[in-house]
Amino acid sequence: MAFLMKSMLSNQVKNLGLGGGGEESKEESGPSDPAAAAGMTREEYEEYQKQIVEEKMERDAAFAQKKAERACLRVHLREKYRLPKVR
Q1: 37 neighbors 31 (Cβ within 8 angstroms)
Q2: Which residue from 7, 20, 62, 77 has the least number of CB within 10 angstroms?
Q3: How many domains does the chain divide into?
């Protein structure tokens, strides 16, 4: 992950160059491979994509669990204080 951040930051700094950007724009339009565009090898790019998918799944699972906990707490408080369902 640190490698990805370092490469992304270095690419952004390179793109900030003052004038003389003709060569850089040719380089950016050249590679059609997303791994080459991100400055990574194919294997690094695939590993990065796997990490993104895994992190998204973990976030979704944590969100679903918190949502269920909130719903359970709401039901418990409604029953305890005999509150009507508001919708």
Answers
A1: yes
A2: 20
A3: 1
